[in-house]
Amino acid sequence: MRRTLIGMVVSDKLDKTVVVRVERLVKDPRYKKYVRHYSKFMAHDEENSCAVGDRVRIIEHRPISKRKRWKVQATLDGAADV
Fold first, then answer.
1. Per-residue CA distances from 72 to 22, 48, 82 (Å)
2. In the chain, where are the structural domains located?
């Protein structure tokens, strides 16, 4: 079983690589309030098909480079065209 995460593409400037920001909610132990925490992952995008603002599903993968250990599995929502 490989881990899968859903996040938003924040950068597509690299070749065959996108930076995906994943959001998670963590409950504050003192105030009992949920706080958003973000993590950024570099993911492999073979066709360079993702754009900034796309919602994507990434899947754990073997090491591709120094910081890339994830691969784009599917694009869930496209970015809104302005």
1. 13, 10, 24
2. 4-77
The model scores a pTM over 0.85: yes
Q: Over the stretch 16-66, which tens digit does the pLDDT of each residue have?
A: 999 999 999 999 999 999 999 999 999 999 999 999 999 999 999 999 999
Give me the sign of the Cα torsion angle 40, 42, 46, 49. Answer: positive
Task: Give bridge partners of residue 68 from the DSSP assignment.
Answer: 42
Contact 37, 23 (CB under 8 A): yes
Largest distance between two CA atoms of the chain:
46
What is the second-level CATH architecture of the domain 4-77?
Beta Barrel (2.40)
The closest alpha carbon to 17, from 74, 52, 68, 62, belongs to 68
Dihedral pair phi/psi, residue 55, rounded to 5°: -95, 125
